[in-house]
Amino acid sequence: MPVVRVLPDILASQVAAGEVVERPASVVKELVENSLDAGAREVMVDIEKGGVNLIRVTDDGCGMAREDALLSLERHATSKLRTAADLASILTLGFRGEAVPSIASVAKFRMVTRQADSLTGTEIIVDGGKLRDVRDAGGAPGTVIEARNLFFNMPARRKFMRAESTESAYVEQQLRLHALAAPGVRFRFRKDDRTIFDLPGVVRTADRVRQLLGNELGGELVEIPDTMGSGMQVSGFILPAQHARKGRRHQFVFLNGRPIEDAAISKGLVEGFRGNLQDGLYPAAWLWMEMEPHLVDVNVHPAKKEVRFHRPHEIRDLISQAVADCLKPRPRSPLPQVATQAANDSEFISEPEEKIVSRATMFHPSQQEMSMVSVDDSQTDERLSKAPQFRLVGMLQDRYVIFESDSGLVLFDPKAARERIIFEQLTKGRKEGLETQNLLVPVLIELDPRDLDHLLREKNALLEAGLEVEAFGGNTLQLRSLPAFLHMDDPKIFLSEILEDTLHGPVSAGKFTFERLARIIANKAAKRVVPRIVEAQSLLEELFECDLPYCAADGRPTLTEFNRKDIDRRFGVGRG
Question: What's the rounded Cα separation, in Å, for the pair 420 and 418?
Fold first, then answer.
């Protein structure tokens, strides 16, 4: 019969490390939070081999006396809680007292710390949870903590570590979060003796966002002014709806200085856009929230990523209203008197000319258009003869083309047709050698470090689909070419959408396959097609040059026929 025993301290710390220390980024998170709680104005992080060989966090915070430094290695030892009542008013980032002993139990650990008013500091060395040495040491005021050979005593855990570049990307992402949470603090990140970024402290949160986002997108930020309500305050920035993406990776939320994730906040952001977002897309946002501590419980997740709000619906409504208010169009200045008078005198110019033309020809194309799309039998060749012989009737709401067939009515979807055509051009080009075009000016796209790492590892797969990518420096990706048959007015938005779907679409795990890339490229390119009645017949003929003309790359139909008998039945024709 099993006997109940109390776990040894080292084993208990290793068990706790399973919750606290998932990967090198977890170590960085806990140590940087301690640095910020210590009042640091500069935090410097060095890693080697993705953080597995070395993680070093250096700060200029308050430091610790020898007694406190030793106590910090005991489980559940903390300076941030005294009584149970303190749990209801936590304003520090760390508070459980598990991080330092957990890290020390799974690494070769070294701490050097000194208070500003002390002549000497303290150096402590721990090897896999066993205290090896405590001695006096010199050093600047503050604390330096090193964790070497992470999980050296837990080979099963170390086996599940990801590639070095992937672990480095997670560390960098974590540091960027903290840099946003504490904009007044300088953050420096070095990887394998190479500086990745050095962000000086700034006064305004907008400056920190622009430091990380870049000047181009930074210029499009829409400010959410300070908004108060029910013991809460929210401010921040959003990007316009065209920058919305799948997933919430572009939403950065900070509560009382703590990076958090919460579904109510994300829902409030979406609701604030008031239907201007496609289903499944989430806006890019940077939010800083201040709240009375008793209105939120931060002690519900081992890594403190999630919190529980006392009144989540009020938070959602506050954020929704704040976003909606900042997106309201600003009143325009009055038009000059001459222009106003002209508009009154000429009723027909109140709408764009192309809109009027499209309405007039919705079901009755002009003679000029009909002559452009009619098929001349004397010029019909083998290529044209593959398409069904339909009579063009018109367009439905500037979206679908209406044809008449021998059997009834046919609706034709130009976007689905173009998707099928592009997909087959890509697949045939792969077999015969895909022709690409170099962009006159390479497109630069700022990415999440993890996404950048993923794309660079799959650069050969992207090149096979006609997209040539290279690292440009920092977290910027350079795109140099497109398939030659694609002509884009704004290749940056197009390529951003392709990469977003490739990385975070419905099927985004694992390696990139050519077929999936071709589907995504065809789908995104086809969405830019503007259906035109004058192009309907030639597009139909081009579609029927394809091997599978009746469906788009994703399986949607390109043509739908409504049989005359079915139509008669709907109208009751032939009854009595």
Answer: 5
